[in-house]
Write a structure and sequence with these properties.
globular; mainly alpha; membrane; 442 residues; MATE efflux family protein DTX1
């Protein structure tokens, strides 16, 4: 009996008598739980640094906060805060902080590669544990550099690099020493650069999105399961955002003391928290929808929508609310961004129809034309579908050929072309008239 090449270890299945809905909820909770905790622990590293810096003074808190925000969306790029009218002292403090954060960029990239290598195989517990160890160690490192060695905000920035490096070393050793990865990691090879342009056509648009469950089910040809996964994750995302929103509202009067001892700062944070709670609702849904779009293979559509929502709607809305309405930091650009992402919902629901299938004329399938050999067993590699529990069998190969020829469930052309017509022309109807849209769009 054939064994899946990757994945499956962190995925629970239901017992006898359980409905498909209950089974799917269990799968997603078992997979998402460690992912959420691991992601939180990875992000808490910079949060802890800002907390330590905040107790040095208001100026240090302001410079560290604005640096962390800009670094998160620009990849630690050059700050030009004076040009935008920022206070000179804050700008100078932010510039100093960002200089000491530059080394973290060179460690953060390889760290994310290791994290994604494990996540694509549904292996999430090691990431959570390594992130937990790193977060605990980061508190000690921050205390040592900020207070003991007297480096101030520079020490907090440098602590990020040390903690990211710690996390990277833990995951690298785990992958290297664990016997379960001998089939999926055989060491460095120049073969990794074959068809690199095709891979980049997937990777660059996908950089803004994350997905596992939907892509796994589509890759295995389980269309009903993919549709069910979409519905379940939408509900779970809504429940999660509401829970987090209520939690931060309840602690709004206490949370500010973690960052500063200044009463004015604490009071302002308390006023901001209810607005932040509302943005969590839209932000969670945006993350879920982006993941679904990526899992369905619409990387470019997702990238265009995300970039437009953030930079063409979100940032102008933030400037308008902050400087025209004089709301300061209390802006609601998340709502504007979410409105633009409403179109993505329709793409998700249509893509995951029970009588449809994910796109096939895609760079992923150009990569998938080759078979990679491992332990004498070949398998097809579809990056778009993340290869959850996919097995290379004659039935899979035949199914892929049928998809590429557009002859699955009566469809006369690949479903993606039909979807693009529906999305961009608005002329889709029940007769499902087809309009040929060239693959050059992708």
């Amino acid at each position: 009996m054939e064994e899946p090449l990757v994945g499956g270890k962190s995925e629970k299945t239901g017992g006898p008598g359980e409905s498909l809905l209950v089974i799917e909820v269990k799968k997603q909770l078992y997979l998402a739980g460690p992912l959420v905790v691991g992601s939180l622990l990875q992000n808490v590293v910079q949060m802890i640094s800002v907390m330590f810096v905040g107790h040095l003074g208001e100026l240090d808190l302001s410079s560290a906060s604005i640096t962390t925000s800009f670094a998160g969306v620009t990849g630690f790029s050059l700050l030009i805060l004076l040009f935008f009218g920022q206070d000179p002292e804050i700008a100078m403090g932010a510039g100093s902080y960002i200089h000491w954060m530059i080394p973290a960029l060179f460690v953060y990239g390889p760290l994310q590669c290791h994290v994604r290598f494990l996540q694509t195989q549904n292996i999430v517990l090691p990431v959570m544990l390594s992130s937990g160890v790193t977060a605990l160690n980061h508190i000690l490192v921050c205390w040592l550099l900020v207070y003991k060695l007297g480096l101030g905000n520079k020490g907090a920035a440098l602590a990020n690099t040390i903690s990211y490096l710690t996390n990277l070393l833990i995951l690298a050793l785990y992958i290297r020493l664990s016997p379960s990865y001998k089939r999926t990691w055989t060491g460095l090879s120049m073969e990794a650069f074959r068809d690199i342009l095709s891979f980049l056509r997937l990777a660059v648009p996908s950089a803004l999105m994350v997905c596992t469950r939907v892509s796994n089910e589509l890759g295995a040809g389980r269309l009903d399961a993919a549709r069910l996964a979409t519905h379940v994750i939408m509900v779970l995302g809504l429940v999660s955002s509401v829970s987090v929103g209520l939690a931060i509202i309840l602690v709004r009067n206490l949370w500010g003391y973690a960052y500063s001892n200044e009463k004015e700062v604490v009071e302002y944070i308390a006023r901001m928290m209810p607005i932040l709670a509302v943005t969590f609702l839209f932000d969670d849904l945006q993350c879920v929808l982006s993941g679904i779009v990526r899992g369905c293979g619409f990387q470019k559509i997702g990238a265009y929508v995300n970039l437009s929502a953030y930079y063409l709607v979100g940032i102008p809305a933030a400037l308008y609310f902050a400087f025209v309405y004089h709301l300061g930091g209390m802006e609601t650009s998340e709502k504007c961004r979410h409105e633009l992402l409403g179109a993505v919902v329709r793409i998700n629901l249509r893509t995951c129809r029970a009588d449809s299938v994910a796109p096939v004329h895609h760079p992923a399938n150009q990569l998938g034309q080759r078979s990679f050999e491992g332990k004498g067993q070949g398998f097809q590699f579809f990056p778009t579908f993340r290869l959850g529990n996919m097995r290379h069998t004659r039935q899979d190969a035949q199914f892929s050929r049928e998809i590429s020829q557009g002859d699955v469930h009566g469809d006369k052309e690949p479903t993606r072309n039909w979807l693009l017509k529906w999305c961009f022309t608005g002329m889709c109807n029940s007769s499902q008239k087809h309009l040929e849209i060239g693959d050059s769009l992708w």
